[in-house]
Design brief:
By secondary structure, this protein is of the alpha+beta class. It has helices spanning 25-29, 64-76, 143-156, 163-166; strands spanning 5-7, 10-18, 35-42, 51-52, 54-57, 83-88, 95-97, 102-104, 108-113, 125-132, 167-168. Strands 2, 3, 4, 5, 6, 9, 10 and 11 form an eight-stranded mixed β-sheet that branches. Strands 1-8-7 form a three-stranded mixed β-sheet, with no helix packed on it.
């Protein structure tokens, strides 16, 4: 078979936190809770200077859910105890890299952090900013990332129609939901 190679070894993680605007009298009175999205500015090529969510590669033997937690921890210092809720996104937006002749399909996750969460960046990023999720599409370059924001806004936040179906169990640690191995040998 010929044609572009298909890769599924990259995950995107959209970190959200309740916004200070949620404490606004009108928002609270209407029952609305707003959220901010964390954007990270890449420090190195090929994406230097671009704002992105957390992104990372699946390591051998790792599941996408594990990658999402590990990458969020490595890139922002997020720990499981700072996660209020997390969700899988249903849509996987394909993108094509002509120079590599590759089609990429990235599993995507939305993680809602505690209100006070502030990232501790690693060396992959040189800046961060929180943007209102309602304005986040304007801050992202790539169509697939903008599509993920629309899915988060319409399906998950606040109390979206598919939030319960897409909600994942709260992780206890970064190895949560690890694939099980063979049972221990009895001796």
């Amino acid at each position: 078979m010929t044609g572009p190679r298909v890769r599924t070894d990259i995950v995107d993680v959209y970190l959200l936190r309740p916004s200070a605007r949620s404490h606004d009298h009108n928002a609270h009175h209407n029952g609305d809770q707003t959220h901010d999205l964390l954007l990270l500015r890449r420090a190195r090529a090929p994406l230097a200077g671009q704002w992105h969510p957390v992104m990372g590669h699946v390591e051998p033997g790792e599941r996408a859910m594990q990658t999402a937690l590990r990458e969020a921890g490595e890139e922002t210092g997020l720990t499981p105890d700072a996660i209020s809720a997390w969700f899988q996104l249903e849509q996987t937006f394909p993108f094509f890299l002509a120079d590599r002749d590759e089609v990429h399909l990235s599993p995507r996750f939305a993680v809602v952090t505690d209100e006070g969460f502030e990232p501790a960046l690693n060396n992959e990023h040189d800046a961060h900013r929180w943007v209102p999720v309602d304005d986040a599409e304007n801050s992202l370059l790539w169509p697939g990332q903008r599509h993920a924001i629309r899915e988060i806004r319409s399906c998950i936040l606040p109390g979206g129609p598919t939030a319960d179906s897409l909600r994942l169990p709260r992780p206890a640690d970064p190895t949560h939901d690890a694939p099980s191995g063979p049972p221990p040998a009895k001796g």
